[in-house]
Each structure stands twice: as structure tokens, then as C-alpha cells.
Design brief:
The chain is an all-alpha fold. Helix content is 76%, strand content 0%. It has 3 domains: 13-199, Growth Hormone, Chain: A (Up-down Bundle); 203-258; 263-468, Growth Hormone, Chain: A. The chain has helices at residues 16-35, 40-47, 51-78, 81-101, 105-116, 121-132, 135-166, 171-190, 204-227, 232-254, 266-295, 308-336, 338-354, 363-391, 397-424, 436-458. The longest helix is centred in the N-terminal third of the chain and has 32 residues, at 135-166. Mean pLDDT is 84; it is low at 1-12.
Amino acid sequence: MSKSPLTMEKAPRTGSFAAGVLGAVILVYSLLESMLAPALPMIQQGVGASTAGVSWVFTGLLLSGAVCTPLIGRLGDIRDKKVVFLVVLGVVVAGVFLSAVATSIVVLAVGQVLQGAGLGLVPVGIGILRDTQSDGTARTGTGLVMGMSALGSAAGVLVSGPILTVLPYTWLYWLPLIALVLLGLVAVPALPATRPSGDGKVDWTGAALLSAGLFAVLIGVTQAPSWGWSSAKFLVLIAAGVVLLAAFTAVELRIDRPLVDLRTGGKPVAIVCLVAFAVGWATYAVYLALPTIVAAPPAVGYGLGETATTAGLLLLPLGVVGGLSAALTGRLEQLLGSKTLMVLSCVPVVASSAILFLARHDAVVLALAAGLAGLGVGIGLTQAINIVSSSVPAERLASAIGFVLIVRTIAGTLGAQVSGSVLASDVVPGTPLPTWSAFSSAFVIATVVGLLAVAAGLALPRRIAAAV
């Protein structure tokens, strides 16, 4: 494939400071979203919402991220990525402000939906690094951005507890809002302007089909535990989603300037998506299982009988190890090669699920499982993006990365809901707690998904052909 006439050659125009600013924005955004889960009852009371209503607010954030990210990625391909990044950051800031001042469920919902656009900050930020830095420096910067995302997601649960003990829940919004505004002011001079990598237009038909398809699938999967996996509503939504996504695929393969070019990258990109799916599923399985095991009283046959603070501490290795390993991925790739590193990154994903079989009453095993999950996330997702960057032309990079992240999001949602349904299907008599047998079934499923990722990684070509 020949380069677009507007495609700029990669040249090191920025140092580590720009990468640090991008990483800091992603860290604060990830902290913001992960801090909210422990505060859900307080938020519900603060806006006078029902349990179902407040849960839909956070479902809206997920749906917004899934729908907006491909479109934001495409805009990053055909516009100045700095401008796109700052505009999306502005939308997130507006959403955080609305959520902070909300006294009704409607205002809170609008704020959360606006915040969902922040998922698109990752592909556009990585695109800035790829456009303005040398290949080696850009890979290090990619690791930093992905590492900050992993660290923020794990640390948020731990940080929210101390904040909520001394401040109202609204400060979970105000503190990130202040940080994001300050970082935005720093980003204006720190981030370099980039020339558009492509000269295409936005495929609005594809955007509508993809958005509607993702919306149907995610709503169906999210509501399946309450509706039932064999209910008519679930089956109709999934069928509609599949039809819409099939139509999206057909449109994208036929037009010259698609929203997501499914023809570029070939086998490596398809395999990377499978690995991202496994990482998303397994990670959310750990997130779901660990707090429940920590809180359960030992009398039910498992559990530590500890608080949410303990659960946050035991989840922290996921973020710390994920952040450190992501930053080292570029160097590891130089030592081991793309394929070997991709395959090896799947092994901790399998191990994190498998080792949970030994976690009945053992905090050390739980922390080890979290650390292994972090290792798989840090190396696996960063290496996946590095492979995409090598396989996809510059004019398609941001949208391709966005697509990989959406696959991971869908997998995480599906993994959490399937695991939750399995756990709810077999409870200890007289309690709402799952039996250890139910946990074991969830661990088996997550382990099998991880093994499929290992098999997919083995199918990667030994040499990844560079996109030109």
C-alpha cells in the first residue's frame, strides 16, 4: 500500500515530556472512572435515583465509550490529532463538571455519557506519539500510556476509600476535574500539532451501523443476568446486533474510505483482536471475583472476611505490575521479537485465572493473581498496539487502535456478565454468596479464554510486515 500524499514521515519532534502529559491525562481519566464504583450507593442517594437507574448511568458511560471511540479514532486519522485530543478532553471535562453538580439522575446521566468519550483519548494520544517521535521512543511512550491506564484502573478503588471518609462523594469528580483542567492547560503548548495522516472523510453510514450494533450487543449482554440468557429480549437484541455488525462489515469492505478499514493489517491485526478479547475477559473476571472472595466470611468455605480496603490493596498489584511491564514492553520486544513476546504475554493471563483455584483463604494467592493479570494487561495490550502500529498505515492507525480497544471493552463486559451469571447460579444456602464450585466454573471459563489467546498468538507470522 502506498503512502497517502498527506502522510508525514515520523520524526522525533517531542521528548518524554509530551508522553508524560499524555500518560498523566490517561491516568487521571482511568482513576476517575474506577473510583466511582465504591461510591455508587452515595451517588444513588445524592441524585435520588433507583438502583436500576443509577446502574444505567454507568452502563451509559460504557456504551458511550464503545460508540464514540471508533469515530474519534477516525477523526484522529484525518484531522490534527492534537486538536482532536484537546476537544475530546474538553468534552470529558464538561461531563465531569455536570456529574459533580448533578442533583438529578438525568443530569448525572448526561455527564457520564460525555465522560465515556474519554476512551477515545488513548488511540488519539498514541497516534500523536507515533506521528511525532522516532519508532523506539514512540513504543516506549505507548507503554507509558497503556501503563498509566492499567495503574489508574486498579488504584482508583483503593484511592476512593480514603477520599470518601473525609469528603462528600462529589469530590471524586472535583479532584479529577481540577487535575484534567490543569493538564489540559499544560497540553496546549506541550503537545505538537500533527498533519492529517489521511485525506479521507468520515464514513457516517459505517459509524451508524457500528454504533447501533455495539449498542444492541452491549445492552443485551449487560441486561442478560437480570433478563435471563435465554430470554426473548436478550436473544432479539443479540440477533439485531449481529445483523447490524454484519451489515457494517459488508459496508466497510465495499467502500473506499471506511470508518474501520478491515482490509488493512491482515492476519496480525485479527490475531491481536483475539488476544485483546482474552485480556479483557480474564482481567474483568479477576476484578469481579477478588472483592467477593475477600469480603466473604471463612464460614462459607472460602473467603478472608476482610473489608473493601483490603480488596483494593490486593488489586493494586494489577495496576502496578501492569504499569511497569507496559513501560518495558518496547525493550522486551527488541530482545524477544514481536511474536514471542505476544505469546508470552498471554501466559500470565492464563495463570492469573488458573491460580485463583488456590485462593480460598489465601491473600497472597489473590495478590499474585492480580499481579499476573496486570502483567498480561501491561505487556499484552501494549504489544498488541505495537503490532497494529507496524501492520497498519499511518492514515489508519488511530482508528485501528480504537477498534482493538473496543474489542477489549466488549470482552470485559461479556466476561463480567458471564462470570456474574455463573456465580449467581449456585449460591451458599441462606446467603447471596456464590459457592466455591461456582467460582471454580468461572475460573475454568476464564482459563480457557486465555488458552485460546495463546493459540492465537502462536499463529502470528514470525516477522510482522511493516505497513507502507
